Amino acid sequence: MEGKIILKKISKEYCILKVKLTEDMNILPGQFVMLSHPLKKELSKPFSVMDFEDGVLTFFVKIVGKFSKLLSELKENDILNIKGPLGVPYINKIDKNLKYVLVGGGCGAVSLIYFKKIYPNLVENELYGFKNSSIRKIFEHKSLFIDEESGNPLDKLDTILKEKNGIIFCGSKGMQKALLNKYPNKKIYMSLEENMGCGEGMCKGCPVMTTNGVKMVCKDGPLFDSKEVLEWKD
Predict the structure, then answer these.
(1) Do 26 and 69 belong together in one domain?
(2) How many domains does the chain have?
């Protein structure tokens, strides 16, 4: 399907795009779509959804490579090609008897913000870390944590995490490892970030070794119980 950009916000490192769909879609937190540029339809990349309301998808893009730079250069009324929804909703993978602290690093915050909107009763608290305050040019949130202002976000997590809480995390592998080392006995779900080709498990480009054998992050995830994952593809 296609979508028209109706709003764009941009900073030095990030870009927010609001895209009005031409067809109906039902997408839940944790699912993602494959976006392709109107001039490079053969190339697509996976993007999580920060919000979905009244047929409008909100994307939060970190400008780090050629494709994301191309997206950031699009203008309002430009058309994107969209395939989705893909992946398994978070709600299908978690223990619904727990309340969670949502921990996101950079763009990892995106799917968690949408999760809080749809399932507020499952959320105890939120913590979204960014390296510097330039993010405030386009995005502000009560749970925003700026590294250069406040230090290590995991120190902040100590002050808001209750004994009975689980954690849903999405962010860098470095932060992921630190979180697992800090809370080895916590119920932690990890939303994995991997390079994807097709988004449907056919190309086998995003394997992860689990206690139940090899799974594809795109088709079987992106969310996994941290105890289920044995290793990540290098």
Answers:
(1) yes
(2) 2
